[in-house]
Fold:
Amino acid sequence: MQSEATKLMGQVKGGNDAAFDVLVSMMRNQAFHVARSLVGSREDALDLAQETFLKIFRARDTFRDGDPFLPWFHRILRNTCFSFLRRERRVRRTSLSAKSEENEGDWEILDEQVASPSDRLEQEERSDVFRMAFDKLGARDREIIALRHFEELSYREIAETLDIPQGTVMSRLFHARRKLRDIIGDQLDENPGGHEPPILETTESR
Structure:
């Protein structure tokens, strides 16, 4: 996906509007799922994905030849979502004591109803326990889970999208799942009828 998307973006920069339509078709699902993992509302996620593509098109002349497209695209998408959350006063920096395993800060999303799983997972899991647990994760954890499980990207594809090593992808995903499992465990104690979804399984082939 990385090389094809980068090639298409180069064509867009060169004035090929048809290439932009192909690029949007290729990236729209990923844009929606990541946006929804951060902002929750399906309607807001659709609007923010659309806004991101508009920004991409307007900024096409600033795309640097030879740079990979996916990290550039994802930064614009993420910034668009965070700008929306800041306008809505639904996001804040976590404390310095809450840094990630890579010693980086995170964003806490304040609305208790945001970042529900995708429609497909909602239908498969139908678990209020999972939804409530997912809502309590920080932005970085939601993002990595969305890319892996909602968009079903491989480790390599996630690494290309976020412009980080595959080992970092695996580490972030491991820690995100562990946090989700810990939260679900606490909630299962309060709700014995709940169940852990397959998303928490740690054995994978890719």
Remarks:
- The chain has one domain: 2-200.
